[in-house]
Amino acid sequence: MSDHTTVFEDTGGGLILAGAILLYRNQAPRSPRPYGTPRDDAAAFASIHAVEHDEEGRPTIAAGAPLTRAHLRQWSEALGRTVRPEILPANVLVAHPDLIAWWVPAQVRPAHFALSSPPAGLQRLSERTSVSVPYPAHLFVATRSGLGVYALPASRRPDADTRLLHSPILNVYVNGTLCWGNIDKPKALTTASIPDYERAVFDSWSTHPNPGQELTVSGKGGLVRLWDDLAASGARRFPVGRLKPFHPSGRQPRRTSRTAVAAAITVGKLIAAIAR
């Protein structure tokens, strides 16, 4: 039995129980995740039913039909009408109940380094320190499952065709997701939470590159030494040309220039893939 009760109150719109969606899966009835999605390899089925009321107003679920994408679209649109209109900040690209994407321009800002295994010969980052360094422009994509962090080739608002680069920020996996560690996650997925997401990236301590992240920059020295050079020299601009095109595996397959452009992951392709 569920240990909680949900109560729906009527509103000024006169809402009544009109339909029901029944979900089927081949897991045991006493699932530890009764409201979660089935496993990737588990079979699932859904049906949609009208709800009929007797003379005393008591509801009964009638015979149903297989749930289709058309049903989902219709109900998603109806439910979306209850969302309060919001004036979006200029830096927001996408605002959706399950996804928020925004960009930040290139800028010099404080960075915090506490490398767990600093390589020999570092000038500034061999010990725990905070120092101002230049960051390239970035795209952030927050979802209910995490935060994606990607660098942009230019410090201007991107469009759907803007190609993405690997972010040089430490603690970011090669697939673009942030390694949260002990960082507090924002509790809400709203535009008001954007500062909290940015603080999680820029105000946390960078302790190490994640596996494969050293391969996401070109040139000698790798990622840690690049940050060390920027900190030691007092640089005011990040060398974006050293960042490799974003690829979720971190690998850069050999291609001709024409096929490389066609295969490049853009803002539009990324958002479409996440939204699927």
In short:
Strand 2 and strand 3 (59-66) form a beta hairpin.
Structure description:
With 276 residues, the chain is α+β, with helices and mostly antiparallel strands. It has two domains: 62 residues, no CATH class; 184 residues, no CATH class. 18% of the residues lie in helices and 24% in strands. The protein is built from five helices and eleven strands, in the order βββαβββββββαβααα. Strands 4-5-8-9-10 form a five-stranded antiparallel β-sheet, with helices on one face. A three-stranded antiparallel β-sheet has the order 1-2-3, with no helix packed on it. Strands 7-6-11 form a three-stranded mixed β-sheet. It is elongated, with a radius of gyration of 24 Å. The relative contact order is 0.13.
Note the gap between the termini.
Answer: 33 Å
The overall pLDDT, averaged over residues, is: 85
The count of domains is 2
How many strands, which pairing sense, and closed or not: the largest β-sheet? 5 strands, antiparallel
- Count of separate DSSP helical elements: 5
Question: How many E-type strands?
Answer: 11
The poorly predicted ranges are: 6-12
Strand content: 15-25%
What is the element string, with H for helices and E for strands?
A: EEEHEEEEEEEHEHHH
Major beta sheet, strand line-up: 4-5-8-9-10
Which outline best applies?
Answer: elongated
Q: Which structural class should the secondary elements be placed in?
A: alpha+beta
Q: Residue share in helices?
A: 10-25%
Radius of gyration: 24 Å
